[in-house]
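Purpose: get a first structural picture of the assembly so the mutagenesis plan has something to point at.
Setup: two entries, given in the order below. No constraints added.
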Amino acid sequence: MNRGLNRFAILVACATFFLIIAGALVTSHDAGLATNDWPLSNGQFFPRMVGNLFWEHGHRMVATTVGMLTIVLMIYILAKEKRDWVRKLGIFALLAVIAQGLLGGLTVKLMLPLAVSSAHATLAQLFFCTTVSLAVFTSRSWIEARPLPEEKGLLPLRYLCTAALVTIFLQLVLGATLRHSATWDQHLPTHLVLAHIGGAVAVMIALGMATLTVLQRHKEEKFLARPALIALLLLFVQLSLGIAAYLTRLKSPDDPQPLNPMVSITVAHVACGALVFVSTIILTLRTYRVLPARPALRESFLQDYRIGQDLHVNPE
Amino acid sequence: MNKQTKVWLVLSIALSLLALGSACSGGNTNTTSNTNGGGASADAGPYSGPTGTISGVISYNGTPPAPKKIDTTADPVCGQKNPNLMTDDTIVKDGKLANTFVYIKEGTVEGGKKVGDYSWPVPPTPVKLDQNGCHYAPHVLGIQVNQKLNITNSDATQHNIHWTPKLNPEWNQSQANGAPPIEKTFTRAETLVPVKCNQHPWMKGYIGVLKHPLFAVSSDTGAFEIKGVPPGKYTVVAWKEGGATGEEKTMEVTVPANGSAKADFAFGGAATGSTKPSLQMMPALELPVMKH
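Result (C-alpha cells, whole complex):
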C-alpha cells in the first residue's frame, strides 16, 4: 500500500467533486453558451470573466486542472501500483476525463443538444465514481480488509447494493436529462419531473433496503456500517433538497434572471446526488471485498438446510 | 442467486426503467409548424393595387406586474451604464401596452387570393438590433424572411447573441465591444423567435419573422399601424411577452381599399379578443403545490 498514492487519489476525487459543483453552476446559471468558442473562450485563454462567462470559463479551468491531476494520477499508479486491474482503472480514468472534455466541447459547439448535455452530466458522475473507486482501492482499509463470516440472510448484500447502485445511476441519468431539458426561464417538462419523482421512490426503496440490511447484519463492522449510514443520511438530505429544488425551480421562470436560492439549492441537489452515488459505490465495493461470493453463500444455505433436516429427522 | 433475490433485483431495475421509459415517451409533442405569414401556396407575384391600413391601440386592463430590478453586479459594465435596469416584459403607460407584436397571420385578399400567395419583396434596408446597456434595443421587432438583421454591440463588454428558434437554425455568436456588426437572415417565417444573451441572462428579446411586411410593434403609447395592406379579410394577431410562453390574441379584421381598419386589443384583467398561449414552449408544470 502506498499512502502517497492513496492521498493523491483522494485529492483527485475531491477535485472531481468540486468540478461537478462547477458544472452544476454552469447549468443553473444557463451559462453553457456564454461563449461560442471551445476550448478557448472568446478566442482567449484568460478572457475577462464577467457575467456568466465567469461560470463557464471557471468550469473549464477546474476541468483542465482535474484533467492534469488525472494524468499525474495515472502516471503515479503506473509507477507504484502492482495490481494490474488498478493500473487499468487508472488508464480508464484518464480516457474518461478526455472523453468528458470532448463531450463538454461538443455541448458548446452543438449548442447544448439534450442528448449530449445529458451524456456530459452522466459521464461526470461516472468519472467521479472512477476516481472515488481508485481512492478506495488504494486505501489501507481496502487492502487490510479481512473476509467476514458468511451471510445468513436471504438477500445477499452485494446484490442488494448493486441493485441500489444501478437504480441510483438511472436516477442520475434522469436527473441530468431533466436539468438539461429546460433552462431556468422555462417550465420543467412534467413527464420528466414525474419520472424523476418515480426514480426517487425507486432509489428510496433500493438504497433504503441495502443500507438498512447492512446496518442490521453488520452493525458492529465499521467497514460496512459507516458507508451505509452515510449513504442513508445523504439519501434523506437529498430527498429534502429535491423537494426544495422543485419548489424553487417552479418559480424561477418568473424571475428576471437565475437567482438564489434556486441556483444554490439545485446545485446542492446535484452535488448531494453525486455523494449518494459515491457512498453507495464505496458500500458496494466493500461488500464485494469482505462478503462471500454467491457459491459460498449457496453452500451456507445448503449447510443450514442440512442442519435443519438433521434436526427434523433427529430432534435430540 | 436465489429466487427472492432475483425478484427483488428485477423489481428494483424495472421501477427505474419504468421511470426512464416514462421520461422518453412523454416528450414535447408540440411541434406544430408555425408558418405565419399568410400560408403561401402559389406565387401570384407581387401585389399591386390599392392598399389600406390596420391601426389600433393595445391596452392593458388592471394593474400590470411591477417591473423587477435586475442585478447586474456580475458585470460591472452593465451596472455603470444602466444602473436602474428593470425587466421590460410588460411596459404599461397610462393603461397602454408597448412592445406588442401585431401581424397578419392569414387572410384573403379581395379577389380570392390568400395573402401568402403573393410574393413580398424583401426590403433592402436591414433591421437593426443593438445591445446597449446590457439590454436589447428594440426589445421586440419584426423582420421579413431573408431580410438582413444588423446586430451591433454598444456596450464596453462582450455579449453573445443566442437565437433559439423552432423552425430556423439555432445560432449563437459572441460579439466583443467594438466588433463589427453581425449580419444574419432568417430563412423561414416564425413567430416569435426568442433571443438571449447567455453572458447576461436577463437580456431577452423577440423577433417576429414573416414572409410579408404586414406587421408592427406597439409604441410606448400602445399605438400601432400596419401600412400597405391589400383590401381583404384577415386574422390579425397581437402577441405580448409574459411568463415563459407569451400571450396571443386574435381578431378578424376587414380592410377596405384605400381605407383604414381598427384593431384594438386588450391584455390583462378583462381583456378582449380570444386568448391562447404562444411560443410553443414547455408546458407549465401542474403538480399540486402547497400555498399559505
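Chain A touches chain B through 68 residues (CB under 8 Å).
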